[in-house]
Specification:
Elements: H1 7-28, H2 39-42, H3 44-54, E1 58-61, H4 72-92, E2 96-100, H5 105-119, H6 128-131, E3 132-134, H7 139-153, E4 157-161, H8 167-177, E5 181-186, H9 192-198, E6 201-204, H10 206-209, H11 211-216, H12 219-247, H13 252-258
Parallel strand pairs: 1-2, 1-4, 2-3, 4-5, 5-6
Helix pairs in contact: 1-12, 3-4, 4-5, 7-8
């Protein structure tokens, strides 16, 4: 039974589903949508190259990660960035350190790390027990442990993508002080200004969620991002039309949205 006032929701859902399947099929056949360049993601290779030149490791954290709740998609975005980062580190022979907060993330991160080395033909060089480090499930104990890694091992680059809270500025300032190149990204609006002030490159909001599609060009992820952007464009057009028509005395858009 269709609930009154929800017919439009059902139609949009069906259209979105159909468009996503169409886009994924087109991408599998060779069509690649154009992405706006994201400097922070383009700079990953620069960060790893800098580490290789300096003979230092690269540090990565996905913040106070979780695989459930509101910020789970942001954690997955961070893991997507880590997968690409691990491949670059394997390619250039650079050690990578992933400071882990949530225990559930560890097996996923370990598998991504191993797959990266296998993809680069260096499976025997993988050292997951050294690279994937569980530190603490307590926020500031975790922050202190990351600071300790920064001070002892002096990473040439620090990559931070995920949900961050009060520890964001602690991390950014510590790695800035030791001279690390920094790439940071989060969708938590309160923390973005801290990253913007201190870090070299910043991914803001939805740029983080597009990271997986941007880096891997996976058809499912790329098709989903493409259709989401179409949906945002449609909503923007409807919103502008609604404002113009309402000011002209017509409520046709309002009535349409109530359908």
């Amino acid at each position: 039974m269709i609930v009154e006032g929800r017919s439009l929701d059902l139609i949009v859902l069906i259209l979105t589903w159909g468009l996503a399947l169409w886009a994924i099929d087109k991408i599998k056949k060779g069509w690649i949508p154009q992405f706006r360049r994201l400097a922070g993601l383009d700079a990953l290779e620069e960060a790893v190259g800098r580490a290789a030149e300096m003979g230092r490791p690269v540090h990565f954290t996905s913040g106070l990660n979780s695989l459930s709740g509101t910020w789970a998609p942001l954690t997955m975005a961070g893991l997507a960035v880590f997968g690409e980062l691990a491949r670059l580190c394997a390619r250039y022979g650079v050690p990578v350190i992933y400071s882990v907060y949530g225990t559930l993330v560890m097996p996923i991160a370990t598998e991504l790390y191993k797959q990266a080395y296998v993809a680069e033909g260096k499976a025997e060089e993988a050292r997951p027990e050294e690279a994937i480090r569980y530190l603490s499930g307590s926020q500031f104990a975790y922050a202190a442990a990351v600071q300790g890694i920064a001070e002892r091992e002096k990473p040439a680059a620090n990559i931070m993508v995920g949900p961050f809270y009060a520890e964001s500025l602690i991390f950014a300032e510590t790695f800035y002080r030791i001279g690390s190149m920094q790439i940071a990204g989060t969708a938590r609006a309160y923390q973005i200004p801290f990253f913007a002030i201190v870090c070299d490159y910043v991914l803001i909001g939805e740029e983080c969620y597009a990271a997986g599609a941007y880096l891997t060009k996976d058809p499912a992820q790329t098709g989903s991002i493409f259709v989401q952007d179409l949906g945002k464009l449609f909503a923007l057009i409807v919103g502008l039309l609604g404002v113009l028509l309402y000011n002209a005395g017509s409520k046709i858009i309002i009535d349409f949205l109530k359908w």
